[in-house]
């Protein structure tokens, strides 16, 4: 059974991620940003910091695995197939389901770059992204 390994990996990941936080903080405030239920188990979690230059966008694509992300800075126009377009600002989170076409993921700021962190939740050795034609 792989579940204990997954739980251990997640606990270690969270511990490392938040290791810069002060342990003495007593007034920690938490705000749920997104909760996603994923069936099965994960083989690998990959995180990437991605920077889009001013007015730069990704081509139409999909991910062979679910992707959870958070915008660090900038303003991104985001649209999945079958959904309305929306603007993501710094602090906004997004979810891209496995194999769902992403029609638009574009930095709409003409002067500044946009930065986000994408977390790829992989069941095996899937690629992180596939371009569509």
From TrEMBL:
<dbReference type="InterPro" id="IPR013096">
    <property type="entry name" value="Cupin_2"/>
</dbReference>
<dbReference type="Pfam" id="PF07883">
    <property type="entry name" value="Cupin_2"/>
</dbReference>
<dbReference type="InterPro" id="IPR011051">
    <property type="entry name" value="RmlC_Cupin_sf"/>
</dbReference>
<protein>
    <submittedName>
        <fullName>Cupin domain-containing protein</fullName>
    </submittedName>
</protein>
<dbReference type="InterPro" id="IPR014710">
    <property type="entry name" value="RmlC-like_jellyroll"/>
</dbReference>
<feature type="domain" description="Cupin type-2">
    <location>
        <begin position="51"/>
        <end position="99"/>
    </location>
</feature>
């Amino acid at each position: 059974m792989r579940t204990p390994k997954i739980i251990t990996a997640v606990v270690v990941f969270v511990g490392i991620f938040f290791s810069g936080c002060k342990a003495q903080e007593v007034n920690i405030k938490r705000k749920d940003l997104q909760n996603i239920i994923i069936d099965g188990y994960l083989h690998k979690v990959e995180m990437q910091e991605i920077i889009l230059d001013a007015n730069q966008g990704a081509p139409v694509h999909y991910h062979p695995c679910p992707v959870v992300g958070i915008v660090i800075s900038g303003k991104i126009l985001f649209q999945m197939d079958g959904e309305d377009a929306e603007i993501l600002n710094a602090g906004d989170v997004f979810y891209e389901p496995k194999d769902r076409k992403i029609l638009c993921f574009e930095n709409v700021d003409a002067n500044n770059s946009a930065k986000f962190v994408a977390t790829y939740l992989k069941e095996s050795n899937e690629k992180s992204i596939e371009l569509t034609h």
